Amino acid sequence: MQVDSGSPAPNVPERYGRVAIALHWLIAALISAQIAFGWFLGEVPRGTPMRGIYVNLHKSTGLTIALLIIFRLGWRLTHPPPPLPSFMPAWERVASRVNHLALYVCMLVMPASGYIASNFSKFGIKLFNVVLLPPWGVDDKRIYAVFNTTHIVTSYLLVGLIALHVFAAVRHAFRRDGVFARMWPSRLSR
Length: 190
Ligand code: HEM
Ligand code: HEM
What we know:
CATH architecture: Up-down Bundle
Bound molecules: protoporphyrin IX containing FE
Shape: elongated
Mean pLDDT: 92
Distance between the termini: 32 Å
Strand content: under 5%
Helix content: 55-70%
Radius of gyration: 20 Å
Strand order of the largest sheet: 1-2
Structural class: mainly alpha
Order of helices and strands: HHHEEHH
CATH topology: Fumarate Reductase Cytochrome B subunit
């Protein structure tokens, strides 16, 4: 006969794994820097050689971050996160799921829209100024504008989602309810 002792099952992890934590903080830092880089691009005058250098660097770092994001998504799909603590109210569970899902969508749409837009302009992408990726699309200002606008609008959506996310994370940290600690690097983490 099985007796329910009320204690958590021994194999259910309570924290994110080491790889998930490392990927979270690495990508958080890189995306924040990439957003700042994108805003800085707005200050670089169009039609100058410096503009080409900075824009190509932004494209190159963006594509590199995209590879990390795809790896993270693959990791996430094969490594389910620890279940949320049972004391969390239903609205918080829903808010956290929606926020995380939207963050993942924006993390994919950002590099994808930038990459697609670049292929509908004559410039293409010079990967770290070493590898030339010639555009596979036509040089069409209207198509470029659609994807470039998607890139810009999504960047503001992403910033809003990050602000909400950080607000929630800090709230959990002050409450010391263990949710922030699940994602914080610790020697005890698996
Ligand atoms: C660019 C910035 C960031 C992005 C894109 C981001 C994205 C994400 C995503 C997608 C998750 C869900 C993980 C999963 O279950 O797969 C997550 C979890 C988490 N993030 Fe962030 N994050 C960012 C910055 C931060 C910052 C600055 C903090 C702390 C102040 C933070 C704290 C957390 C915590 C505590 C969790 C775990 C939540 C839980 O246990 O349900 N994140 N983050
Ligand atoms: C995680 C990836 C990326 C993030 C977070 C990001 C973020 C940004 C941001 C915040 C801006 C400024 C938007 C504004 O004007 O308010 C920007 C501009 C830009 N991004 Fe990205 N970006 C990423 C990846 C890429 C990639 C992969 C490409 C191309 C291959 C790209 C191409 C561009 C271009 C060309 C601009 C200038 C647009 C203009 O001024 O008209 N980005 N990006």
